[in-house]
Design a protein that fits this description.
This protein is mostly helical. The chain is 70% helix and 4% strand. It is built from 14 helices and 3 strands. It has a 3-stranded antiparallel beta sheet with strand order 1-2-3. A hairpin with a 5-residue loop joins β2 and β3 (26-32). α11 packs antiparallel against α12. The longest helix has 37 residues, at 341-377. The protein is globular.
């Protein structure tokens, strides 16, 4: 009899499936993506389907591993450039959602392209993750500073470009999967994922400090009014939907993920905006609560759509929930040598809370099934 386990992590993404027979012999397959900044959602879907078939069809371990090899080596759903196009669309939408103007959004998309391509190069040459992320974070800061020095953007608008890129480097998928492991009491993979996330966060901190130290050498003038424009609710929801589709492309999602991504973006943005504008709730609390709804939605539809839960929660977590505005506020203070550490700590806490919220939503959906199974075994 075959059993299977499917697991996905980020930085780069690793997929592991194990098949064990009745004699205790275990055969496993492991694959790692070549990119530093994206999760291969379509490969996760293919591998998940093999894992499901292994259990439901009682596949022989050799057959299961053969199908796994074919699934792991399957073709990409879209041309290679679609990943970069999706990342640029996602950056454009996030920048607008956190208060960037059209020029800043276009420059954020361009910066994201350069930073992501550098990440691909670091991954291909096996540059240590901590070093690669630090360079990426510093590169994003250098671009934002250059845009201001060239007179293209104000300090506040340049901060939206940098903040957008930083939140896209942040290890949100790992934090989400770590939270799921914690809720599932998986004591083996949770610490490993948490350590990987800590390395990425440390790299962002190092790159950010280098960028700030450089910015203090320039005369940025007197700190002005850093109030950023706010999108109308309906326009924010539209960009959340577009951002979710871009997120699906950026994380190598196939055609089957695009419509669910749009629905996930619509639902989470609608819940988030309702909590903020109707419930008068701070965004730092509204985002994680919207992530709970996202987790329930993902768990409820994953099997029917034949998609991994983690893929659905990932694509639904776009600029509507990410703490880009908080990072931007802390960055604006920091470039004028005023401590913005409180904002950065709050942003990190929000990222963790998003993972916990999504995993708790998945858990809530599983409770009735567990209770039903327990009742049937009594």
């Amino acid at each position: 009899m075959g059993t299977a386990r499917c697991d996905g992590v980020r930085g780069g993404p690793v997929v592991i499936v194990q098949c064990s027979d009745d004699n205790g012999h275990t055969v496993s397959r492991l694959a790692e993506a070549s990119t530093l900044d994206c999760l291969d959602c379509d490969r996760m879907r293919r591998v998940k389907n093999v894992a499901r078939q292994t259990v439901t069809d009682n596949l022989d371990p050799a057959v299961a591993c053969e199908r796994l090899t074919a699934a792991n080596a399957g073709p990409q759903p879209f041309p290679w450039w679609s990943v970069q196009a999706g990342g640029m669309l996602l950056a454009f939408c996030i920048c607008l959602q956190i208060g960037g103007n059209a020029a800043a959004a276009l420059l954020a998309a361009t910066t994201q392209l350069v930073v992501n391509l550098s990440g691909r190069g670091f991954g291909a040459h096996r540059v240590p993750k901590f070093v690669g992320v630090a360079v990426q974070a510093a590169l994003a800061g250098a671009f934002g500073g250059a845009f201001h020095l060239l007179g293209w953007l104000t300090v506040a608008q340049a901060a939206t470009v940098i903040a957008t890129t930083w939140v896209l480097i942040a290890p949100l998928p790992q934090l989400m999967l770590t939270a799921i492991d914690v809720v599932s009491a998986d004591s083996l993979t949770a610490p490993a994922r948490a350590l990987g996330a800590a390395l990425i966060i440390g790299g962002i901190v190092l790159g950010g400090l280098l960028m700030l130290a450089l910015s203090w050498r320039f005369d940025l003038g007197i700190a002005g009014d850093a109030v950023l424009p706010v999108l109308p609710v309906w326009l924010g929801i539209i960009f959340a939907i577009l951002g979710a589709i871009g997120n699906a492309l950026f994380n190598v999602g196939g055609r089957g993920l695009l419509l669910p991504a749009a629905v996930a973006g619509l639902v989470t943005a609608s819940v988030n905006q309702t909590l903020i504008h109707v419930g008068h709730m701070p965004s730092a609390w509204a985002g994680p609560l919207a992530a709970v709804v996202l987790g329930v939605l993902a768990a409820a539809s994953a099997d029917r759509l034949r998609l991994p839960v983690s893929a659905l929660t990932l694509v639904g977590t776009t600029g509507a929930l990410l703490p880009g505005l908080i990072v931007c506020q802390g960055l604006i203070l920091s470039v004028y040598q005023v401590s913005g550490i409180g904002y950065f700590v709050q942003a990190a806490a929000v990222c963790v809370a998003l993972g916990l919220g999504a995993s708790f939503g998945v858990y809530l959906w599983s409770v009735p099934a567990r209770l039903s199974w327990a009742a049937s075994t009594d």
